[in-house]
Amino acid sequence: IKIDNVVDTTGAGDAFMAGLIHQFLNHSSLPTTIQDMNKLVLFASACGALVCQKSGAIQSQPTKEEVESFYNSF
After folding, report:
1. CB crowding 16-37: b at 16 or more within 10 Å, else e
2. What separation, in Å, do the N-terminal and C-terminal C-alpha atoms of the chain show?
3. Model confidence pLDDT, tens digit, residues 6-32
4. Residue 57's closest CA among 8, 23, 21, 17?
5. Which of 9, 19, 55, 62 could cross-link to 44 by cystine, CB 3.0-4.6 Å?
6. What's the Cα-to-Cα distance from 53 to each of 24, 27, 44, 48, rounded to whole Å?
């Protein structure tokens, strides 16, 4: 994922992990293919990327809808 305007990276790693955990918890089984794992990691990366576009660690955390909209743009 490429973003053009990095404002602050604080909280990006936390957002990535939260996105990854969210994906694991919302799938009925573990990923079995590289493509499945790529989808999970791309969603988590979208979470981290969105955080980088705002200032601060807490208030910059995206909603599920924001992540899905950003994720679906790829």
Report:
1. bebbbebbeeeeeeeeeeeeee
2. 8
3. 999 999 999 999 999 999 999 888 889
4. 8
5. 19
6. 25, 28, 15, 9
